[in-house]
Structure formats: structure tokens, C-alpha cells
Amino acid sequence: HLPKEQIEAYSELHPKARHLLFSYGTAGFRTLGVVLDSVLFRVGILAALRSKKLDGKTIGVMITASHNPEDDNGVKLVDPRGEMLEVAWEQHASTLANAPNEEFLDALENFIRTTRIDLSKPARVVYARDTRPTGESLVKALEDGLKAIGAEGRDAGITTTPILHYLVKAINTKGTKEEYGEDSEDGYFQKMSEAFRKLVSGRPRIQPLIIDCANGVGAPIAKKLSQYLGETLPFALYNADTATPGALNNNCGADYVKTTQRPPPSLIGVLQQGQRACSLDGDADRLMYYFIDERGYFTLLDGDKIATLVAAFIVDLVKLAGLAESIKVGVVQTAYANGSSTKYLSERLPVRCVPTGVKHLHHAAEQFNVGVYFEANGHGTVLFSPSTLEKLETHEPSTPAQSTALKHLNNLTQLINQTVGDALSDVLLVEVVLAHKAYSAIEWNSLYSDLPNRLVKVHVPNRNAFKTEDAERRLVTPYGLQAKIDDLCKRYDGGRSFVRPSGTEDVVRVYAEAVLRSQADELAYRVAGMVY
Ligand code: NG1
Ligand code: ZN
Asked: Among this protein's residues, is 66 annotated catalytic?
């Protein structure tokens, strides 16, 4: 059944360089864009096989390296419900990507046999890329993979990661009772903007929002969204230049803002005191808000602040709707969540800590009726379980107040991209809450004060020597190191620090927080010194 000659002929056009070793990690395959050609070709075949394995359901492929430098690129597979690729297949992806050219066909046949893929099933794949210059040729390599195995491909063009996830879910639910929305970019904008209009109707006019688009795909997409929103939420777009080489994520974007704890230089002089602004990352799945406070200090409203704002709002609405008994709201964080946010949240609702990586957060959030998850770096969303969605749709409110709250909750389920973190959907969500609460950025920020914190990277000879437990909050190996960290932390007021190997870079990350800025920095550097 396998069109071997055809695959071989195409495969010769996309040879794998012998010395390269690829690995499908938390961010899919990610490295320099120019070395990814063979990977994309093989991912095309793999995506087709994943589709066949799932009875012809549409699989998504996103070509992006998110917040990484412009020369990097990457690729990730999206499962039929718009979720990350099933973990067991990550290993298959790496194995196929690394097979030497002459063994590729054998590896493929072996994989098809052991995974029991029925080749007579149809294969459908929808794919997109961000604005990176290497994206265009990588799409061609992917398309060759699809042609080689005879899969049906749909090109979603240049768009954001969350829109691709949306499309996958919309395509696969079309015509079913869980229909997610029309399977087009237009359908995505319609669904979100309509829900937004309903949620803010009757509220005071919202002041324009400054958006730093990281010079990436968020720029054209925010521009389009803005047309749907009209006057209900005016955007002032900055760093929207996708044409200048090297501009992507350079001195701008959500990752820059979070890691440097500074505004993008291009916004200095633009940002007025108290005015809220935000940054997207290179594929628009992360969001950071910020403002300049009354003393002139730059203040970040990161993923933890967003989670807090949103979770509190939803809890209130659930109560107002008279559903507090049957709908439980929970929050999922990682060890990087600021200690103050965890304290604030834990006093109000269940909070779980999971290892770094969206798949862990997403999975844990699914265990709640309503699961709010955010990484401190700004990636996150809210999940409503199927039974909760049904309850919200069918519940009979007994007072006008209940009815209003219920309407808001139902509109939120339409506003929020429940497939994956989505910076633009999250912008609308934040703006809805601020409008309802009549909060400025300053009032939002004052819900709790962040503990000063520091994140440092340490290059070590072998990062695999670092093994963790307790959701990455403690080291198991190297032996004895955790005890030393514990001792050190005790000497700092509010001191907390942990060490873990990065899943996306060849480094070990050290995080530290303390009540005083100088102490957080000192703790981080001292722990870093022990790691090296
Ligand atoms: P690693 O490199 O494993 O720390 C980083 C981010 C994660 C997540 C992934 C995927 C930090 C500290 N880590 O993971 O939160 O976003 O990249 O892109 O921000
Ligand atoms: Zn991203």
C-alpha cells in the first residue's frame, strides 16, 4: 500500500544531513531554520500517518519558533481536538526525523507496522507558518511530504499558532453537536469579536490598547481582528514590521519584556503613566501586560496576574449564576509562578502545580470543571469541561441577576480559545474583566504584589545530570545539591529557589524570589554558582 518509489523519489529532494540529531521536545522540533528541510518533509509524512491512525481526522502542523530569534524555526503537530500531539508520538517523530536517508523507508514501514496504521484510511492535514523567512521553503518541504504519501493538504497561510489550533478543532467538529466555529480565519474573528461585543455592551468606552506585536505574525492578525472590533476596542499597534530582516522578537515581544523586565525600547516615550500596554510573542500565543506606575517604575502584569484576574472573575460569575455548588473553578501553575500569586490564589480556590510545558498545564486544567492555566511567561487559557458547557447552556436561572451572569459565562466560552493559549483571545478576555470591574492597570496590579524574582541560565557540561521531582520544584540529582539550596533559601526573607534543566535550550535554569529585589538577585546568583 505504501507508495515506496514515490516516497523515495521525494525523499531524495529532502536529504537529512548525517551529523544532525533532531529531537521533538516541549516545543516540537526547534533549531536553525536552514537545517530543518528534511524534518519538515518527514513531518509531512508523519502528520499524514497520524491522520490515518485517527481515522482520517484532520491533523495540524504549525511552522514557527515562537519567541526565538528570527533565524530559528520549528514545527509542531496539533491533534484533532486542537491539542498538542499525544506524548507517545513525540518519540516516533524523533525516530523518523533521525533515520539516515537510506534507512528512512525501512523506519517508516517498521513504524506503520508497530503502530498498526491502516494505510487505506484517508489522511488530512492543515498547516500554517509564522512570518519567518525560512518558513516559505519549509512549507514546500512539508507539502512534498504530504504529496509523497498522498495526503490531502490545506494551506492556512501565514497565521498565528492559536488560529491554527482553532482551525484544527473547527474542521474536526464541523457538523457535530460540539461544532467549535466556522473553519476559517474569518470564523475565528467572527466568533471572538461577537462574544466580545456582547460582553462589553453597555459599559463605558474602552481606551485604546497599545500592542507590541514583536514584529511577527501577531501584527497582521491583530490588524484584521481590529477591523472586526471597530470602536469597541481600539488597538494602537507597535513593532508591526514583518518585512525588515532581523526585526522579529528583536528588542520587543512578550519574551523580551518578561526576561528583561523592561519595556521594548521602541515604547519608551510612547507609554504614558498608568496607560496599559501589552506584548505578544512571535507566534502570538503568549501575552504580557504592563504599565508605568505613578513613580515611573515599569510594572509587569504577567501570566500569573492574568490568571488571578480571570480566575477571580469567573468564580464571581459562577456564584452570581447560582452555580457555585456544581461548577468548581481551579487554577494550574508551574514552579515559575510568583509565590505571591500562588498565595493569593490558594486562599480562594484550588491551585495545582505541574511541570513546565503547555501539555502538562492543559491536561491538569482538564481535571477541573473550569480550569484556568497560565505560565508566568504569558501562555495560557481557560478550559470549560464538556459537562460544564452543557450545564451553562441548559441551566434555568431563577433571577435576572443569575440570568445576566449566566449569559456572561456563555459568552466567555465563545470568547476564549480553549484549544491553546492565544494572546489575542487573552487580550479580549483581560479587557472584558477590566471593563466589568472598572479596573485600571494600577488597580489590577494591586490585587497582590509580586515578589521580586530572577531567572538565570547556566551552561553546564551535561544538563541531563539534573533530575527533578515535585513538579520540578526539587532536585533529585546531583545528590546533595537540593539540601544546599534549601539551606541557602532559609537565609533569605521569603526566599524560594529551584533548579531544572530546560526542555528547549541546552541550559539549566535557576529561579529565585525573595521579599527584596537585591536578595532575589543574590539568591539566584548564589544558587547558579552552586550549579555550575
Ligand atoms: P524551558 O526551556 O523548558 O524552560 C520554555 C519556557 C516554558 C515554555 C517552553 C515552551 C520558561 C522559564 N520556560 O521552557 O515556560 O513556554 O519554553 O516554549 O519560560
Ligand atoms: Zn509562542
From this structure: yes
The residue contributing the CA closest to ligand 1 atom 5 is 504
Q: Does domain 303-445 have CATH number 3.30.1490.20?
A: no
Return the best residue to mutate from 300, 377, 453 for the ligand 1 pocket (most ligand atoms within 8 A of CB). 377
Total H helices, total E strands in the chain? 18, 19
Burial readout 498-507 (b: 16 or more C-beta within 10 A, e: otherwise): bbbbbebeee
Of 26, 161, 287, the residue with max ligand 1 atoms within 8 A of its CB, to mutate for a pocket test, comes to 26
Chosen CATH of 4-158 out of 2.130.10.150, 3.30.470.20, 3.40.120.10, 3.10.180.10: 3.40.120.10
What pTM value is reported for the model?
0.97
pLDDT in tens, 385-429: 999 999 999 999 999 999 999 999 999 999 999 999 999 999 999
The ipTM estimated for the assembled molecules is 0.96
Question: From CA 490, how far away is CA 179, in angstroms rounded?
Answer: 53
Candidates 147, 181, 176, 159; CA nearest to 60 is 159
| Alpha carbon distance 44, 178 (integer Å) | 28
Which residue's CA is the nearest one to ligand 1's atom 9?
357
pLDDT score at 1: 85
Distance 530 CA to ligand 2 centre (A): 31
Q: How far is the CA of 332 from the centre of ligand 2 (A)?
A: 19
**pLDDT score, position 532:** 85
Identify the CATH homologous superfamily for domain 453-531. Answer: Alpha-D-phosphohexomutase, C-terminal domain (3.30.310.50)
d(CA 230, CA 219): 16
- Ligand nearest, relative to CA of residue 499: 1
Identical fold between 4-158 and 303-445: yes
Residue 503 CA, closest ligand 1 atom number: 3
Q: Which CATH class is domain 186-299?
A: alpha beta
Can you give the pLDDT at residue 505?
Answer: 85
Q: How far is the CA of 165 from the centre of ligand 2 (A)?
A: 13
What is the distance between the alpha carbons of residues 196 and 232, in angstroms, rounded to a whole number? 9
Instruction: For the chain, give every domain's residue range.
Output: 4-158, 186-299, 303-445, 453-531
What is the whole-number distance in angstroms between the Cα of residue 280 and the centre of ligand 2?
8
Question: Which one of the listed residues 11, 38, 66, 341 is annotated catalytic?
Answer: 66
- Report the side by side order of strands in the sheet with 235-238: 235-238, 209-212, 277-280, 287-292, 298-301
Question: Which pLDDT tens digit goes with each residue over 262-299?
Answer: 999 999 999 999 999 999 999 999 999 999 999 999 99
Residues with CB under 6 A from ligand 1: 26-27, 66, 336, 356, 375, 377, 379, 502-505, 509
